[in-house]
Specification:
alpha+beta, Aminopeptidase, 7-stranded mixed sheet, 32% helix, globular
Length: 184
C-alpha cells in the first residue's frame, strides 16, 4: 500500500472533496435519498467556504498522491447534542461534532476512516472537547459498525430529516476522543 496520511484541507482540495461527497453519497445512499436530490449534489461553494473560513476543521485522507476521503469536525452546536427531550447533557459545551466522515468506497477497508476519525478526535481535543458525536443514517450499517468498532455506539437518540420529500432517519453515535490507531 502507498503511504497513507491525514492532513488539513487546503483550497486546492475543494473540488476533490466536493466530488468525493457527491460520488460517495450517490453510491452509498441511492436507496435512501431520492435520485433528484442525489443528482443535485453540488456543494463546491459550501466546501470552499468551510475550507477558506475555517469555521470547522476539514481534514483529508490521502493515499500516495490520491485524496481518498475527508472529514469535517468542530465543536457541536446544542441542537446536535441535545437529548430526545431537548435537554442538554452536562458536557454539551465540550462536545465535538464529526459532521461528515466519508471515504470513497473504492478506497474502503484500508484504514482511512480510522485515521480520519483519530485526527478529528485530536483536533476536537485541541479545541477543548471531551466527547464526540456524529449522525449516521440508520440504514447505513457499515458506518454504524465502523463507529461502534471505534467505541462510538449509538446512544438511542434518533432524528428524521427531510431528504427531498422522503424521511431519512439518523442515529446519533457518541464516544471518547481518546482514540488510538492500532496498526495490524
Amino acid at each position: 500500500m502507498a503511504e497513507a496520511s491525514v492532513r488539513p484541507a487546503v483550497p486546492a482540495d475543494v473540488e476533490e472533496i466536493a466530488r468525493i461527497q457527491r460520488d460517495t453519497w450517490r453510491a452509498a445512499y441511492a436507496e435512501l435519498v431520492p435520485e433528484e436530490v442525489l443528482a443535485g449534489l453540488d456543494n463546491v461553494a459550501a466546501v470552499r467556504e468551510l475550507v477558506e473560513q475555517a469555521t470547522a476543521a476539514v481534514l483529508v485522507a490521502t493515499e500516495g498522491e490520491w485524496t481518498v476521503g475527508f472529514c469535517v469536525a468542530g465543536l457541536a452546536p446544542d441542537s446536535e447534542v441535545a437529548e430526545a427531550d431537548g435537554t442538554l447533557p452536562p458536557d454539551a459545551a465540550t462536545t465535538g461534532l464529526v459532521a461528515t466522515l466519508l471515504v470513497e468506497p473504492r478506497w474502503g477497508r484500508r484504514g482511512h476512516g480510522g485515521r480520519l476519525l483519530a485526527a478529528a478526535a485530536e483536533t476536537l481535543r485541541s479545541q477543548g472537547a471531551t466527547r464526540g458525536v456524529s449522525w449516521v443514517p440508520e440504514a447505513d450499517r457499515a458506518s454504524l459498525a465502523f463507529y461502534a468498532s471505534a467505541g462510538w455506539p449509538t446512544d438511542g437518540v434518533v432524528r428524521t430529516l427531510d431528504a427531498g420529500g422522503r424521511p431519512l432517519r439518523e442515529a446519533r453515535v457518541t464516544g471518547s476522543l481518546d482514540l488510538k490507531l492500532i496498526s495490524s
